[in-house]
Specification:
alpha/beta; 9 strands; binds ligand C2E; binds calcium ion; EAL domain-containing protein
Length: about 280
């Protein structure tokens, strides 16, 4: 519940105390969920434009807390990053995604999100290598998604890690492209294979009332990607109109509610059994 000032009978300093206690409890619960398999991965299809055939699936974390209900990654990932729990959580995601991938037909791949914090140590390298070996996977079936902020704060370390992944044949995607400041420099500097155009641009395709049309920007990104030899994934495609516009622009892949929502593992397995 939201607490507001004014009519509230609880003195301000007690509210602060409460917030701090609530936060501590949330961290305790988070730690427990990570240790006790209280986390779940959902999978959203990424489809080849035109065919609507999924080629890979993005793994997205879900925390279904028994008392608090559903908590989204936008809430608990920052908390995990602040507390250092992101390493245990991120390692679990990599292993779990690879375990799931080993149960899918070989033509499918999985994309995993990496937190900037995970690119600060060699931990992630060992985790990825161990997961690939344990589950007997070709490295090319794994995509790692990173954002610009991961590259901004620790460029040296990130260069070495991404260079290693690239050399191993793991695919690298720049996530949320267009939302940061120096995207172009990073595309030049790091061995990316895929560029994911942020949802904010896809949403504004065609413009609308008081909404600036993003078509010129998206078209320019497509040309840029082609010149650099990168595949493009359009994120957050919600309408048929958007899908058709992106098809006309020769966008390689589409992802979004129009193509399919993130689903639990059971649904993923059913869908993959059906399309093969
Ligand atoms: P993201 O990597 O940009 O993931 C895409 C987000 O957009 C997902 O939100 C997805 O459910 C949502 N989405 C997909 N299609 C549509 C659409 O058509 N319309 C709209 N409105 N939304 C769409 P989600 O699952 O809540 O994840 C939010 C963010 O949390 C992710 O953004 C990612 O940055 C982070 N995240 C999720 N899982 C992980 C993880 O395992 N590790 C790390 N480090 N971060 C994660
Ligand atoms: Ca992502
Ligand atoms: Ca994204
Ligand atoms: Ca995002």
């Amino acid at each position: 519940a939201k607490r507001r000032g004014g009519h509230c009978a609880v003195p301000y300093y007690h509210q602060l105390d409460l917030a701090a206690r609530e936060r501590r409890q949330l961290i305790t619960d988070l730690r427990q969920a990570i240790n006790d398999k209280g986390m779940e991965l959902y999978f959203q299809p990424i489809v080849m434009t035109g065919s609507h055939q999924p080629t890979h699936f993005e793994a997205l974390l879900r925390w279904n807390n028994p008392t608090r209900g559903f908590i989204g990654p936008d809430v608990f990932i920052p908390l995990a990053e602040e507390t250092g729990l992101i390493h245990a959580l991120g390692n679990w995601v990599i292993d779990q995604a690879c375990a799931v991938l080993s149960r899918l037909p070989a033509e499918y791949g999985v994309a995993v999100n990496l937190s900037p914090h995970q690119l600060k140590t060699d931990d992630v390298l060992h985790t990825v290598e161990t997961a690939l070996a344990t589950h007997g996977l070709a490295p090319s079936r794994l995509t790692l998604e990173v954002t610009e902020s991961a590259l901004m704060h620790n460029a040296d370390k990130a260069t070495r890690l991404l260079g290693h992944f690239h050399q191993r044949g793991i695919r690298l995607a720049m996530d949320d492209f267009g939302t940061g400041y120096s995207s172009l420099a990073y595309l030049d500097q790091f061995p990316f294979d895929i560029l994911k155009v942020d949802r904010s641009f896809i949403k504004r395709l065609g413009g609308g009332d008081n909404v600036k049309d993003s078509t010129p920007i998206v078209e320019t990104i497509m040309v840029l990607a082609r010149q650099l030899g990168l595949d493009v994934i359009a994120e957050g495609v919600e309408t048929r109109q958007q899908a058709e516009t992106l098809h006309a622009m020769d966008c390689t892949f589409l992802q979004g509610y129009y193509l399919g929502r993130p689903t639990p593992l059971s649904t993923l397995m059913e869908n993959c059994a059906r399309v093969t």
